[in-house]
Amino acid sequence: MVKVEPEEMQAIAAAMQPVAGAARSRGEVVTRDFQKPQRLSPTQLAELRKRILEGVSSTRDALKSMLRSDIAVKLIEVDEVSCESLFGDLRAPMAVLQFSVRRQLGWVVWDPTAALAALELALGQPSGGQGDVRMFTPIEALMLQRLLASTAASVLHCVQLAPEAPEMVRDPALLGSWRDGGAEADPQRLKVVIEIEAPTGTSTLRVYTPMFQAKGELAKASAVKPALPEHLGDVQVGIAARLAQIDVPLAQLLEIEIGDVIPLRVAVGTQLDVLVEDQRCMSAGIGQCQGKLAVRIAGIERPKSES
């Protein structure tokens, strides 16, 4: 145990006291449930939510066209979820669209009562009454498939993907599993919840889409280069392009005359080393720019830290 002297304790206590007249900044602590899967950072989730929010209008337009009436669509949730026990509460008949993205399955789930009421309104049929659920007719199933496929497409478009082989699933026993993805099977999905307010009532659409590419795409989109402090913006940094170097005896160096050739022991076309303040940071090839000799950067690497 380390003993803290009274003077040290007083200094620590003084440092923790707020400075008079200074605004005290409050830190933000974000709690995390480690039983819940989480691959995307809060920044990436916020960027993804922003993208999906922009694409929700496609779902609204599709519903408005089908129902032939004004509706309101609201994005409720964007999060990660595990596929284990995902559909334990589903019972037939269902309003579920199953699709795939590069062999990974995804689903769009709508409350069957809300879906049936919306379809009856769209087809001008008398409503069977609130709470009544029946099997969808072939025309209703086709309309529902088009609507749910459009919803999946609008969500996947946000990460430059598209749903493949969409089909309606009417029985829980026929639902595929994340394990059907083969060697690259992924148990996690991106969950998007959309609230729909229609003349027939308020309901929610849940989209579960593969997210194996979402992280990489968002990393590119949300990557922000660290801001350079203002006082460093005009600092001059020396950059040099070096092809090769050799050691020669001093006696030979003193005998060099005009016209002599110094072999560098590198092949023609070898890339140059680009040094920043004598640290190798890049590689480049010889070229020209506006009639002057230049180098084209071919690769970037972090300088090795000194141990």
Show the helix and strand layout.
Layout: H1 6-16, H2 42-67, E1 72-82, E2 95-101, E3 104-110, H3 112-123, H4 138-156, E4 164-169, E5 188-198, E6 201-210, H5 214-222, E7 239-242, H6 250-255, E8 272-276, E9 279-289, E10 292-300
Antiparallel strand pairs: 1-5, 2-3, 2-4, 3-6, 5-6, 7-8, 8-9, 9-10
Helix pairs in contact: 2-4, 2-5
Describe the structure concisely.
This protein has 307 residues and is an alpha+beta fold. It contains six helices and ten strands, in the order ααβββααβββαβαβββ.
Keywords:
alpha+beta, 307 residues, Chemotaxis protein chec
Give a verbal description of the structure:
The protein has 307 residues and is of the alpha+beta class. Strands 1-5-6-3-2-4 form a 6-stranded antiparallel sheet. A 4-stranded antiparallel sheet has the order 7-8-9-10, with no helix packed on it. The longest helix has 26 residues, at 42-67. Helix 2 (42-67) crosses helix 5. Helices cover 27% and strands 26% of the residues.
